[in-house]
Structures
1.
Amino acid sequence: MTELRELYQEVILDHNKRPRNYGGVSECGSRAEGYNPLCGDRVSVGVSLADGVISDVRFEGAGCAISQASASTMTEALKGKGLDEARQICEEFHELVTSNSGTVDHLDESLMAFEGVREFPIRIKCATLPWHTFLAALAEPNAEVTTED
Ligand code: ZN
């Protein structure tokens, strides 16, 4: 498990230092906001679709390193994917971080790194928050997020 632990720390550090697809959520076709009260993580996810393909997926947020790194790796994994494939990846990521069955083994390396989250149950919601938020944005493609301003 040493290798996995190192990969996990490397991915978390790298994506916190250089978050991918950060910003520009308001310019995306559909958006959703996610909040994890257990840790105080907030993440907004924006998705743009073109011909059933995710042409863009972006995030903004503030929270712990795991939630932000998870959002960043998620956007990289989902960009350019078809909707069915994207939903499949969401399911597999969820299984990866919650189940001990070890059946998920073919996700991108940066996603596989989150397998280490299983060792810290309180962190599982941090890791899955961006993914739930992404699915919420897909579920209501025309939903407008209301903000105070
Ligand atoms: Zn968190």
2.
Amino acid sequence: MSKPVVAIVGRPNVGKSTLFNYIAGKRISITEDTPGITRDRIYAEAEWRGRKFTLIDTGGIEPHTDDYIKKMMLRQAELAMETADVIIFLLDIKTGLTAADSDVAAMLRKSKKPVVVAVNKVDNIGELPPEAYEFYNLGMGDFHPISSIHGLGIGDLLDAVFEHFPEEEDGDQEEDVIKIAVIGKPNVGKSSLINCILGEERVIVSDIPGTTRDAIDTLVERNGKLYNFIDTAGIRKKSRIEEDIERYSVIRSFMAVDRADVCLIMIDANDGVTEQDTKIAGYAHEQGKASIITVNKWDMIEKETGTLEKMRKEILQELDFMNYAPVVFISAKTGQRVERLFELVDYVYDQASFRVQTGMLNDVLNEAMAMVQPPSDKGKRLKIYYMTQTGIKPPRFVLFVNDKELMHFSYERYIINTLRSNFGFEGTPIQLMLKEKND
Ligand code: GDP
Ligand code: GDP
């Protein structure tokens, strides 16, 4: 089920990232071996009253001129209106109300999205300072005084946000549709691929602010099966600023990943793996999504014997945390191997949905432990009593052990490799969890 999305919008320096970090807090997952993910915190999972949601900081680049600030803010507001279920509009009591604030307010008012207004840097508990009353002039009604630095008023703010969350749907009604995120940097060929799949030019969804981007999903039927392609292309056409484009395309890619069963991580054959590719792939990996590394524009590459294998090797070296993913070389322009892509999607989806019987699993585990002894520390050896699969998409396993501390990263990797060589699990991450007997 997709989580509600909450976007924070506001002028530079009002405290967006401070608020973001406060709400996301320790929930921002840190995976040391996945590069690029935590480098900039603009997208995180958070939780309030037991409900998980996605938090987006729409700010980022520091604008230099007032004119630029205004443009940036309108752009942010647009992004928020497109993608969020609830918008937090953040203001700053220290600077008071500015013209840019009023412009954004006017824009947000027109959207149908719920907006919760917060006035930041109200650092003292108690009476609302008199200067706060000016914010009523925005015409957005009541607001929440908060202090992001001191964590004041944020519970009330989140309560108000929570009120606007869409009803939780139960069950997965779209069981029979495989959801595919087509992700990658701008111009890698995402739209071209979807157009190629459709066999015709796709009608571009209108660019009017407030148009929901969910409409960009493309449902495709092939051999009686349904596939929902989640495209992330649309956004780029609106911005001329390089970092801006990159940043938003990363956010959109992350959102697509969250909703997907299978990610097509598109790499430009001309460029190889870039930092942004690593970031996007890292996120898909972290979220436990099945992935296919899709190298596009293969038609543009001059080939000799071994070019493909050489490039496959290089790509898997760059994305070494994702060495389970199949790599396919396609051309969205000529249609080369696009059929093959569908076969791979079916394949990795099945792999990610595969369940191993506990008996068989433990036979394999025992054999693996006989081949390579579990690690020991200060005379105490790790004992793995048994393991069981607790979930699919991605496959998740729980290992019952005598002492978690004795587990070693390299032994975990050994077990994962053993699972792969016995059961496949191609294209999907595998997650292991350790439990002690009395946990
Ligand atoms: P952003 O540009 O909107 O992301 O703003 P930042 O989160 O980077 O904050 C801008 C500045 O305001 C930083 O110096 C913060 O320390 C400061 N700041 C943020 N929240 C508060 C607050 O609640 N009270 C006070 N006094 N300062 C704050
Ligand atoms: P997006 O931003 O990822 O959606 O990228 P587009 O689909 O808009 O493609 C960007 C540019 O790359 C366009 O000019 C496409 O015609 C071109 N392009 C996309 N795929 C291919 C391909 O497989 N081969 C070649 N030669 N060009 C491609």
